[in-house]
Write a structure and sequence with these properties.
By secondary structure, the protein is mainly alpha-helical. Among the domains are: 154 residues, no CATH class; 165 residues, Rossmann fold. It has 31 helices and 11 strands. Strands 4-3-5-11-10 form a 5-stranded mixed sheet, sandwiched between helices. A two-stranded antiparallel ribbon has the order 1-2. Strands 6-7 form a two-stranded antiparallel sheet. α2 packs parallel to α7 and α19 packs across α20. It is globular.
């Protein structure tokens, strides 16, 4: 028996040797990261307590596309001409939208069903943003760790988890392209830094560069802001030249990342081969090509003049882009992308009426980012003072995204990556500086050692806690943003007000399937996805002229408007008044008449002007408009009220032509 016991004991010892050894530090690190993941997830699913419904407008389009893919297959997406939207033209989905998020959600749905889950497509789309947001916080940890070590990684992950700006686009129900876009940008930056790190062997660098390209390709297939990622690559290369950090590996990694990424881009129908001719891509390709020439010729260049030769190549690449643009050979940056680069350039009428396209105020910056903004500025300043390959990436991200977030409110989402990353870096530097300052006060080596492991750590911990306490306003603000119902669950008014859900269900059950429902473009995606009825416009907002026609339908009087409704053979009209007991309780269609007028090319002063005392008031033209009469339920000959929701926040009219 003793021999058997000894044999078992020996075998157990051998097995214990095979057990992976995990240090206490690593266990603590994993535990903290897990807690951050759960905090991020908890914030993002809080909206669910008011009802598990989709949020905003675009997510309903993405849900509808996902459902179509699940029912018809991935290949069907490439040939889908949607006849429910943009009547009478319809919409080619493959050439007007990105496949990334619906393809990913459909794949998740199929995997879960393969393992026996009965979860619906709707619930996949509903919770997908929350999980992607939490996973992005984990990815942020690895990017931060690459930048400045474990502390930077954990702080960056935590700041990202509590970021109000990031939460708004990754909360329950906000199923849209940003879910993947921000995740992909974090991964692209991480893999690129890994691919140029001197710590990694050459084969690993190539592998990391390929993964960086795959991440970039994922963004290309998912989000229009992928252009920013290409721009950052260009900025980083130029920055490395200006700071004498440039080396061949930066060229190799950049080329691989861009090449793999662009393979995905040209495979995306919305982008296609023509996307290679866009200004930023041609600029990057020209720059990389000239650097290849430099690598071939550099042995013949005087070492003291290398930097100037490289900067000269950058200038040549820039001149090449401008020349090719002038000749019409490449596609210039235009539209909303030009508005971001040059905020004072001419804007389309539709673009200017969207709230999230407005310029960000300083007040909004401080409210949204709080102490993270100050720490981020400090971290960026130190990164530029102590610039190396990693610090250059952090600084490039911060400075560029700060500018873009300033010129367009929506791009604060991109800034959330860099501000949280550099805030974590700045905070870590402050803690290290405090510990070092305290350690220097000790008189002997022994006392210094005691100070370092005793008092200095305690004081450093206190300082860290104090800094983290200053994030309390951010946490409070994030909690307030998280602790509200989705737009559908509350009709954009208050918890429990489900007028839109009622109206959409009523239309699905009572409006004929072949009927055309006219509404302002905001509600198009809702009507198409949940009522399954045809609309004239939705959030795609590609045809300003067509949207202007809708604006005229609403703002003309009944006599002038009715022929336009009849021209399109419209059957129903939906309006969204937000009056309750003669008080305005939300942003309804009565607040959108000015946008309708601008897009339609009408003079707003014909509808709203100052009287003799200087007080603004609505004119008789507005009072007689179809929109005003529909909102106020004033009787008209051809418009019959057939449905009003519980609180009359959604009204459906049937059009009776003479």
């Amino acid at each position: 028996m003793s021999k058997i016991g000894d044999s078992i004991g020996g075998a157990l010892k051998k097995i214990s040797v095979l057990r992976p050894q995990v240090s206490r530090k690593r266990i603590l690190e994993i535990s903290i990261l897990s807690m951050i993941f759960l905090i991020a997830l908890a914030f993002r699913v809080m909206k669910g307590k008011y009802g598990a419904y989709m949020d905003a407008f675009d997510p309903l389009f993405q849900y509808r596309v996902t459902e179509y893919i699940v029912e018809n297959g991935y290949s069907a997406w490439f040939t889908w001409h949607d006849t429910l939207s943009w009547y009478p033209f319809g919409r080619d989905i493959a050439t007007s939208s990105y496949p990334g998020i619906p393809f990913t959600a459909a794949f998740v749905y199929q995997v879960l069903h393969f393992f026996g889950s009965n979860i619906s497509v709707y619930n996949i789309c509903l919770y997908f943003p929350a999980f992607m947001g939490a996973i992005t916080c984990v990815a942020m940890y690895y990017l931060g760790k690459e930048l400045g070590g474990t502390s930077v990684g954990l702080f960056a992950s935590f700041f990202m988890a509590i970021s109000e700006v990031f939460l708004r686009r990754t909360a329950l129900g906000f199923f849209d392209t940003e879910n993947i876009g921000i995740f992909g940008m974090v991964l692209t930056a991480f893999f690129f830094l890994r691919s140029i790190s001197e710590k990694n062997p050459s084969t690993h660098k190539i592998i990391y560069a390929i993964f960086g390209g795959l991440s970039l390709g994922y963004i290309f297939a998912s989000w229009g802001a992928a252009r920013y990622a290409v721009g950052i690559l260009i900025v980083y290369i130029i920055g490395s030249i200006a700071t004498n950090l440039y080396n061949r590996q930066i060229l190799v990694s950049s080329a691989i990342v861009l090449a793999v990424g662009l393979l995905f881009a040209i495979s995306t129908p919305l982008l296609g081969l023509k996307y290679l001719k866009s200004a930023e891509n041609i600029g990057a390709i020209l720059l990389l090509g000239l650097l290849v020439v430099y690598e071939v010729m550099k042995t013949r260049i005087d070492g003291s003049r290398v930097k100037y030769y490289l900067l000269g190549l950058v200038l040549v690449a820039a001149l090449g882009v401008f020349t090719l643009e002038a000749l019409g050979i490449i596609t210039p940056i235009s539209g909303k992308f030009l508005n971001v680069l040059l905020p004072f350039s001419e804007q389309s009428a539709a673009f200017g009426t969207v709230a999230e396209h407005k310029v960000t105020t300083w007040n909004t910056f401080f409210e949204s980012y709080g102490v993270s903004l100050a720490l981020g500025i400090f971290g960026t300043f130190i990164a530029l003072k102590q610039v190396d390959q990693n610090n250059l990436m952090g600084a490039s991200l911060f400075v560029s995204s700060l500018y873009f977030a300033g010129v367009m409110h929506r791009l604060g989402l991109i800034f959330s990556i860099s501000v949280n990353l550099m805030a974590a870096y700045g905070l870590t530097l402050l803690i290290i500086a405090l510990r070092e300052a305290l350690a220097q006060k000790t008189a002997t080596r022994r006392s210094r050692k005691l100070e370092l492991v005793g008092i200095s750590k305690e004081l450093a911990a206190i300082f860290t806690i104090l800094i983290l306490l200053t994030t309390f306003p951010i946490v409070w603000s994030t909690n307030e943003v998280a602790n509200v119902p989705t737009q559908l669950a509350a009709s954009g008014i208050a918890p429990g007000v489900q007028d839109w859900l009622q109206a959409l269900n009523w239309m699905k059950d009572n409006v004929p399937e072949d009927a055309l429902v006219v509404s302002w473009w905001d509600y198009g995606y809702w009507i198409e996805a949940l009522s399954e009825r045809t609309t004239m416009a939705d959030g795609y907002t590609i045809n300003g002229t067509h949207m202007g026609e809708i604006g005229k339908m609403f703002l003309f009087n009944e006599t002038e408007s009715l022929p336009k409704f009849q021209y399109y053979n419209a059957s129903y009209v939906v309006v969204h008044p937000t009056y309750y007991e003669d008080r305005q309780v939300g942003q309804g269609d009565q607040n959108k008449w000015a946008a309708m007028a601008v897009i339609a090319g009408l003079n707003t002063s014909d509808y709203y002007r100052p009287d003799e005392t200087g007080q603004y008031e609505y004119t008789e033209t507005y009072d007689n408009s179809v929109l005003n009469k529909l909102l106020r339920k004033d009787p008209m000959v051809s418009f019959e009220l057939v449905y009003q929701s519980t609180y009359s926040f959604v009204l459906v009219y049937r059009i009776n032509y003479p």
